[in-house]
Here is the input.
Amino acid sequence: AHLALGLTGVGAWSPELTAAMRDAIRSCDRGAGTSRQSLPLDVIAVAGLGIPDAPLVTGGPAAPADFAVAGAFYMLREVEISAAKYEHVRVPANTESATWLLPSSKTDPRAVGVSRTWDCCCAVESLRPACPVHALQRQLARVAVTAARLGKPAEELPLFHTRSGEEVGKHAAVGTIFRLAEAIGQPIRDATGAYQYGGHSLRTGGAHMLASRGVNPFRIQSLGLRKSSTGRALCRRVHGNW
Here is the structure.
């Protein structure tokens, strides 16, 4: 609008306005909203409910429980997990590990280049229902079934998709988190009526889960970082130290 009006002189376009516009576009792409903290979602409790694979909200992800487990263990925001593709995850045959080439960074929600690996957690009794490796194995199988039904290559589909094989939108992803919180008996609003859960609840849920099991805070921080080469080494097989 500024340029269309042909403003000149004091109102002319400036480098400062260019920087502000770039920041605004990046914030919109990231799905950034008001500054607030999202309560952690207890994905261990969610995984123990045996929730069916049907989406919990219109346009939400199929297999919402595995959606939450994967997002928590890999400490992802809702836009990051929604942007992930089938081809970003590798679960090699005859192995008990899953590697995820993360689909998003804070500066580019479509960036690819940082991978995280988890080993099977089934040996840890308290985590067995929420093993991230088996959650991703199940999801890869679901994507293959959906791709065959739609007549598309699995590589073209989102990792966590809607019934029609489409990418899950931000509002549907957050709505799913709301429904999951309610399913484990947690109110989604506080006493003032403000939402307590949000798009970061899987990420904070993962951090809370690890911290409650005695994982070193620096390891947790490394797992959540995207650009730390040290973090890439520290987060791998974190659960081996529990």
The mean pLDDT is 82. The CA atoms of residues 165 and 199 lie 21 Å apart. The two ends are 56 Å apart (CA to CA).
